[in-house]
Amino acid sequence: MIVVPAQAVTQRPERSVAMEIDTTLVRKLLRDQFPRWADLDVRPIEPVGWDNRSFRLGEELVARFPSDEAYASQVEKEYRWLPRLAPHLPSAIPTPIAMGAPGPGYPWCWSIYDWIDGDAASSSPRANPLLVATDLARFLGALQCIDQQGGPPPGTHNFHRGGDLRVYDDEVDRALAVLDGTIDRHAAGALWKKAVATRWRDEPVWIHGDVSPGNLLLRSGRLNAVIDFGNLGVGDPACDLAIAWNWFDVGARNEFRSALPLDEGTWLRGRAWALWKALIVAARMTRTNAVEYAKPLQVIERCLAER
Questions:
Q1: Mean pLDDT computed over every residue of the chain
Q2: Domain boundaries, the chain
Q3: Mean pLDDT in residue range 134-147
Q4: Over 50: is that where the pLDDT of 10 sits?
Q5: Model confidence over 235-251: pLDDT tens digits?
Q6: Are 124 and 132 in contact (CB under 8 A)?
Q7: CA distance 89 to 249
């Protein structure tokens, strides 16, 4: 059963603010809105997320708070759709338990979910990329087969994930200019141009929108759950393929591709999604931390090396 305070779906923040979200604020909101959970131990989850700040509530719950107004609409979207998607998927996804309302010190809706055990693939020492690739392909294949009628099309709510790549043309051009001399600008530009010339010709399908190793929870090296559906929508599934270059090695990438039959244009756009993200990350970084700076450059190299 999903519990929603009466004012949660109608009250809106007056303005965007730089939020300081800490355990004191979380405890106060719990006392005011969900007193039955007010005595639970509240612990911040590390590493800190970008879109949301998350806190363990006891051993069985997690509270998530959008960090900026740009992410606030994702709370109600997840509440509407995750319970409808879950029965059709082969791996666990978060179960909404309650939706909090804006309150003193916090201007947006927030959420409480069940806690799902597992190690993030990004930090799990037992991650087996080949097995994860197979499991993830099965998950995405099932997601794409779910009836998409009424689902949210790409837009500002999910930063156009599942939409036309051309929305990021200007960002790519600026990043290529900044990285000129560091990467093969001509090859990167050619790949982008070739990708944006292709289109998803079939009916729109469900997309996760942020398939990254930090959002994949593993148990015994296998995929146990997929979390963080803030960029959920219906559209072109190419954006969900970027992990093939962001994280998988060649063997896992080939396995992923074999297990998820999509047309060549879709895989090309998936490579372009990975390229776009790596380009803008590298262009915005300072070069003082050589290890971190090398990571997006490695993704760019993988994208350009594939034929």
A1: 92
A2: 23-116, 120-305
A3: 98
A4: no
A5: 999 999 999 999 999 99
A6: no
A7: 25
Q: Whole-model pTM above 0.85?
A: yes
pLDDT digits (tens, 9 = 90+) for 249-268: 999 999 999 999 999 999 99
Superfamily of domain 23-116: Phosphorylase Kinase; domain 1 (3.30.200.20)
The alpha carbon torsion through 89, 95, 99, 105 (nearest 10 deg) reads: -110
Portion of the chain with pLDDT greater than 90, in percent: 86
| Nearby residues of 94 by Cβ (< 8 Å), 6 or more positions away | 78, 82, 113, 114, 116, 225, 227, 228, 229
Dump pLDDT digits (tens) for 159-171: 999 999 999 999 9
Strand order of the sheet with strand 119-120?
Answer: 119-120, 216-219, 222-226
CATH number for 120-305: choose from 3.90.1200.10, 3.40.1170.60, 3.40.50.300, 3.40.30.10: 3.90.1200.10
